[in-house]
Amino acid sequence: MTALRPAVVLGGRTNALSVARGLGRRGVPVHAVGDAESVVRHSRYCTRFVPIEPGEPQPQYLRLMRDVLPRGAMVIPCDDDSLELIARSRDEITSFGLHPIHASDGAVLDLLDKERTYEIARRAGVGAPRTITLRTEDDLEQALREIGVPCALKPLHIHEFARVFKRKVFLIRDAEMLRRAFARTSEHGFEMLLTEIVQGGEDRYWSYYTYIDESGRPLCNFTKRKLRQHPYGFGGATYHVTAWDPEVADAGLRLIAEAGVRGVACVEFKRDVRDDGLRLIECNSRVTAANELMRLAGIDLGSIAYASTLGLRVPADRGFKEGVRLWYPLQDVLAFREGRDRGELTMGTWVRSLAHRQAFPTLSVRDPLPGMVEAVKLPGRVQSIMRRNGAGGTDSSSPEAEI
């Protein structure tokens, strides 16, 4: 890259660190904005870190872009709040002298709404689970008749819901639990979506990633598979591996084209064990926690977005390295315990799955401090998890802790 405009990385944690590393190694000054736990603040590639306070991040992001962050900078969203803010306020942010990375803002807002996302999937002929949006008690009773239990209760807008309930979804075991969860979420004014649970193990999740330029052309093509996740069913990946699957790529591109996406796009599916067909889980228009896996495999989405938005040359797509693995040790121990308790994973199977060269989300020889800081925090996090779960503790995806 020849232009060295600064970049502003908004929100995120390990994904923000990955973006900063990719851009920083190319000589781009990176200004990061995030909460106190954001690991990017410790990176040698972070020129400046600006903290935000607990609470609503969007007004804080907007104020900092107006008053603090460098003029002329490219702005890269790394969480859903910053993504939504840019989609709704692009002209205002541009008036501050900043340049948000290219995106189709209408498509961004559609894909932040789970109801619209599933509608787009059906128009595109992409497999999706059965869903019913719950706005009234009548909707709830209809969902119980048509979908039944067990099922999953999702918010239409996850990032708003997660600030209140500290999770992305409730796994529902019976009708009474659903009624309690619906009553609790309704108290907070959240619109919820009831969805069937796609059948199959945790290793059946696949994702497609790309960057769509202004003409609608994908500048890269990447697929990867989750091997495990935590919490069970609807958690974050604890272990994933790069692998090419043309069917996943084709389904992802069809959904992206139907939505009219421009810029960064990620589509996650699960293969239903009943027919091996792909079912949509979610779609994002920003870099995700898997960004470091992509970068290590040869595709740097942050740098592609930076170059494309500035009109700089983007290297031709030469594919990616397959078999690269990204492992979250602490989270994967929890995933192993859940899988063992469910009778789906043994100690031997888990250990054998780890007999490969591993990459880690924060550990880097070239940028060691983030990994060192995370290692120091590890004992405290283990103790926190043990206190939260306790002996026979509540499933982390259950509403019972709140209801």
Layout of helices and strands:
Layout: E1 7-10, H1 14-24, E2 30-34, E3 48-51, H2 57-67, E4 74-77, H3 80-95, E5 99-100, H4 105-112, H5 114-123, E6 131-134, H6 137-146, E7 151-155, H7 158-165, E8 170-172, H8 175-187, E9 192-195, E10 205-212, E11 222-230, E12 236-242, H9 246-259, E13 263-271, E14 278-284, H10 291-297, H11 301-310, E15 325-327, H12 329-341, H13 347-353, H14 368-389
Parallel strand pairs: 1-2, 1-4, 2-3, 4-5
Antiparallel strand pairs: 6-9, 7-8, 7-9, 10-11, 10-13, 11-12, 12-15, 13-14
Helix pairs in contact: 1-11, 2-3, 3-4, 5-9
Question: Would you mind describing this structure in some detail?
Answer:
- It is a single chain.
- With 403 residues, this protein is of the alpha/beta class.
- The protein is built from 14 helices and 15 strands.
- The chain has a six-stranded antiparallel sheet, with helices on both faces. It has a five-stranded parallel sheet with strand order 3-2-1-4-5.
- Helix 2 runs parallel beside helix 3 (80-95), helix 3 packs antiparallel against helix 4 (105-112) and helix 5 (114-123) crosses helix 9.
- The radius of gyration is 21 Å and the shape is globular.
- The protein starts with 6 loop residues before the first strand and ends in a 14-residue tail after the last helix.
- Residues 391-399 have low confidence and may be disordered.
Quick overview:
With 403 residues, the chain is an alpha/beta fold. Helices cover 40% and strands 19% of the residues. The chain contains 14 helices and 15 strands.
